[in-house]
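Dear all,

This email documents one entry for the complex benchmark we are building for the journal club exercise. For each entry we list the sequence lines for every component of the assembly. Then comes the predicted three-dimensional structure of the complex as a token string, followed by one or two observations. Please use this as the template for your own entries, and keep the labels exactly as they appear.
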Amino acid sequence: MELFIQAAKPDHSIRWREYRPTKKTPWNLRRVVHLHRRAGFAATWNELQRDLQEGPQSSIDRMLNGTTREKTYFDDFERMSASIAKAAVRSNQPDRLKAWWLFRMLFTTDPLTEKLTLLWHNHFATSNQKLEDLSLMRQQNDLFRSLARAPFGKLLTAVLHDPAMLLWLDAPSNHKGRPNENLARELMELFTLGIGNYNETDVKAAARALTGWTVIDDRFSFRAAQHDAGQKTILNQRRAWKGDELVELLLDQRATAERLAGRLCQLFLGEGVAQSEDIKALAEGLQAHDLDIEWGTETILRSELFFADQNIRQSVAGPAELIIGATRALELVDPPPQTMILADWMRKLGQDLFYPPNVGGWNGGRDWLRTSALISRTNFAAGLARGQFSATQTPPDWSGFAAKQRRSSTPEDFVAFLAELLFGGEPAPGWIEGIAKRISSNSHSRDEVLQQAVANILASPEAQLN
Amino acid sequence: MLTRRQFLDTSFQSTSILSLASSVPCFLTRSLQAAEKKKKNGRILVVIELNGGNDGLNTVVPFKDDNYQKYRKTLGISESKVLKLNPEIGLHPAMKDAARLVEDGRLAIVQGVGYPNPNRSHFESRGIWQSAQLNPKAHGGYGWLGRALDQNSNRVQTFADSICLGDVDPPQALRGRQATPSTIKNLAELKFDLQSIDAEVDSDKNTTDDLLQFVRRRTVDARATVERLNKVKNTGSTKTRYPNNGLPNRLKEIARLIRAELEPRVYYTVQAGYDTHINQEFDHYRRLSEFSGALSAFLNDLRDSQLDDRVLVLVFSEFGRRVAENDSQGTDHGTAGPVFLASPSVEAGLHGPAPDLSDLQDGDLKMTTDFRSVYATILSKWLDINPQSCLQGHFPLIDFLPS
């Protein structure tokens, strides 16, 4: 009796309990598709079938340890990636650096890390618009990747010593006596505490603490003569704050843990799924684990909340999720897609890599669905279905694709197959029938009908959700 | 294969959209029902946001003030360079076109506009200006124009109540409970590649999924927008020469949409780049010159089309810069700044008292006019919308528009 009463108490932290399949929440194709689309960039039919068989634990393990993709298209992916990046930097063409990152998203065996890298690019949004230095942009991107799952203190410290960031936020002009507040303000507002957890005098004092931090020969450097060693009051504590101590102070604040928890929830959970109690509980756990991003990520991906019905297909697919997801799920990788072209589609869809719109990054969510971006999504769907983005620009063999998975290519069967592959099943009763009817009512060849099926499904409102 | 014409016919003239009534914003059903009842006499507001915090002190320059020259040792603009509006105040030398607009009675400037307890965060301050709430998060994320258009919704018959043109996220200012903004990057991208898309939006009236409903509405809206714009595309030519830059190009496209009798009463665009922490002089010159040239070309273009008496342009920035320059020939985030209003209908010249450079607060200007007074004036005298319920308070009107 007493146990029952305890269980009925509203304890929100139980929502981070580990997911175990139940009758109401079975391990089915819908949840496998969900895991891959949220934690990665969608999966192929084989990968979905494999994970359906293996069960949640090992599927999540694969996602976390970077073995979720079954095929590596390149013997030495990292070496290939490095040489593409190097050539991009040398060419001084931003589009080639964007293409390099898309290459990684498409072909890495560890899509989760690329997804987190994208999260940090948004959190520490730095634009090449001001920097005009692809070498530094690439260096920062590699930094995000290598510390994507580190304790947040390590990542933050590294970012604050990163030349691209320091130049972006004018650290070199932050002098003793004449502070430039740009870095101090964004450090508090965007990187750690968030609005409402500090005031203007804190920003001014923090700027003084950061005086002397600069960039010399593309590297972080501390110029003691420029540092204001005087007493400053930051968050009600008075002492001769130095930059490193300021960072420690900010990392210790509960508000920082909550902002980090909120960011991770924003990435992995859909709209309105995490309640403030959930974020607080996660923040508490993060504080107990040294703000370890890996711990936070794993906690979310293994949780009941992540696999809850209310979280499935409840977020707007971002440009990368849409473009990489469609290309991968439909296995349009042989001949390989032209990643420069895909990068340009990402721009049209509203996410120009290495060029975030402002220091706050991309808003994401419903804001992805701007009018012109939606039109671009439709046009992208049409182009992809026609095979326009591959090097050879030949129409894909859609009936061969169906046959490979032992599916028939009658319009209705093909649409049903795509619905399973992309959504984990029919999004709504009658949906498959509706699309199949519409595409076959115009007298086309079989190939054209299948092509239209792909285009129509990818352009549908349902396909804009992840 | 379905032609574009057929596609549009089936998608927009058939009952398929009307049958979506429960999930489609009412503007669309309204516009279908009342397609022929175009309202040609409505007044239009065009908002230009100078993003990043424009240095107001170096835009409308108090060149005679000793304090000004003292605080602006390297960035200060001298009397010989300034474009004088009166014996004490003048415009930045890059703003020749704007100065001409003042001369021929088409540009009003309200000085020292801000709000109490200024917030120096770009995002918070933008939020305050856009929501017209001192706590921008307190009222559901709606904006002042969105709320105003909500109030006015029975009078607007269009596919969208407002249009934001440019490569930016939809501004909060336009967000309303019913009022729907369209965000358009540029007119050239508004074309469907229809070779293989037979894209009718499925209606599923039973769904309770809020997010999916939202996507459906946006999809229908986007497709309707393309359809309308394709109709007006060729009516948009102009003889007016615009400088070939970002803002001028966007204003040129807005003029085209206005000329095409598109119904939205509010257009919005952004000019970025005013966050001048470092080496401000050249950057600021460039921005102001682009802005002033664009504004002038826009007004002339509309005059040539005899539409300019229907259009009022409002120009604001989220804050001004600090009075004293910093050590890197730049300026940090500050407080009050000037607001511009352009139209042949304005009372041209300076309005409102200039802030006092000898009476600063923490090195920042004290505002002399609450920005909500500017909004209240526009709402009541231009858009004919009750400002009090929209702004949730009473703010004295300013005399930049005749009663």
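Observations: Chain A touches chain B through 63 residues (CB under 8 Å). Residues 1-10 of chain A have pLDDT under 50 and may be disordered.
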